[in-house]
Amino acid sequence: MQxxxxxxxxxxxxxxxxxxxxVVRSYLERIxxxxxxxxxxxxxxxxxxxxxxxLDRKFQEGGVPGKLFGMPMAIKDxxxxxxxxxxxxxxMLGSYESVYDATSVLRLEAEDAxxxxxxxxxxxxxxxxxxxSAFGNVPNPFDKTRVPGGxxxxxxxxxxxxxxxxALGSDTGGSVRQPAGFCDIVxxxxxxxxxxxxxxxxxxxxxxxxGVLALNCDDAALVLGVxxxxxxxxxxSSSHEVPDYQAAMAGVSVEGLKIGVPSEFxxxxxxxxxxxxxxxxxxxxxxxxxxxxxxxxxxxxxxxxAYYILVTAEASSNLARFDGARYGxxxxxxxxxxxxxxxxRSEGFGRxxxxxxxxxxxxxxxxxxxTYYKKAQQVRRVFQDRYREALEKVDVIAxxxxxxxxxxxxxxxxxxxxxxxADVFTVPASIVGMPAVSVPVGFDSLNLPVGMHLICNxxxxxxxxxIAKQMQRSL
Length: 475
Ligand code: GLN
What we know:
Blueprint: H1 6-14, H2 20-33, E1 40-43, H3 45-60, E2 72-76, H4 103-110, E3 114-119, H5 153-160, E4 166-171, H6 177-182, E5 186-189, E6 209-214, H7 217-227, H8 245-250, E7 258-262, H9 272-287, E8 291-295, H10 303-318, H11 337-348, H12 351-364, H13 370-393, E9 396-400, H14 416-420, H15 427-432, E10 436-443, E11 449-455, H16 461-473
Parallel strand pairs: 2-3, 2-4, 7-8, 7-9
Antiparallel strand pairs: 1-3, 4-6, 5-6, 5-10, 9-11, 10-11
Helix pairs in contact: 2-3, 7-16, 10-12, 10-13
This protein binds glutamine (GLN).
């Protein structure tokens, strides 16, 4: 049982051609067949079937179906579902069970979505390849020797392999968009504050946003609309009105659309296939009436440096709570309390997480604060100004999602800096907090997917998805 979109599934459910139970069974069967791929950390075999049966009963009894009635979804394993394991793909939380639900999870559930399980990821969402997981690698759906991207690698592979119709991810610097690009699906990171972060395990709180991975822009818009909006439990969630995203998407026309193309996004180091495919797609839109406008974002080279100073600073503080005392992993053999803290953290966290805690502690230390952290904050402000200025002149900023196609498993693990470059194009939107999306636009000479990355102004998710849809449609 496969569906081209949620609309397709919904109409078959409504015409009683199929039931939620049958749908869930077919997804669970596929999930079981893909077990060796490590895509899910936890599968809700029983709970998902129970839920499907309950929804079928509700429908038969004339209950009003929710907006996501019967939608089979996957949830990244850094989002809380009450009573379910919440591992963040870390040994630190390997057996931890959440005692409450994330707001996004509650809102999806209230609209009759069905959760199939929790997906694999880089530990605490730190990584670009899903290789930093305590639960093993996830293969790229198009080439098993390559990575699916990260950190939401499990969520992207789940959607691309039809093991979920839509998946939630989290995006701090590209973790929804980059794996979407690597797996040939749509990945949306909304405006900072658009979706409540309550129940999302914090990595870098001033960057983190829950995002949506889907087969198409309409499904992404639908799920965004359900989750978006103010939440009393997250003070940084925005009270900006939630528009009708489908209507906003329908209002987008290619004719006269001003697409800003920054020269910095097409530098020499860019993979030739990626450049060719992304430019080809932009030229296609120009032929359909869009205007391509050369713009320049001269500070782009500083994005990665500023990002890794700011997020490691925030991470070192956020991850201080994992001390072995309150919950999570505790080292067995420690002589005193100080040793218990040290051993629990040394044994519980993986290499990349430790690297970031050390880096973050360093940039925040008294002697270096001004040189690194303060400077990076200033760079963040410059980025915000530049992107605002650019988006006064154009509707959208376009470029590749990643400078290279999916790379081989193990290729970049020895060199963190090279790994960090995988997000060079996605990080700026996170620095400024603007919404951005990756949309599939083609395949390279090795038949690996290439994504187009689009950035719009704050709270313009409808327009952003409308433009992305135009690009995906004419594939
Ligand atoms: N790959 C980036 C990092 O490692 C982004 C991660 C994310 O968005 N969660 O920080």
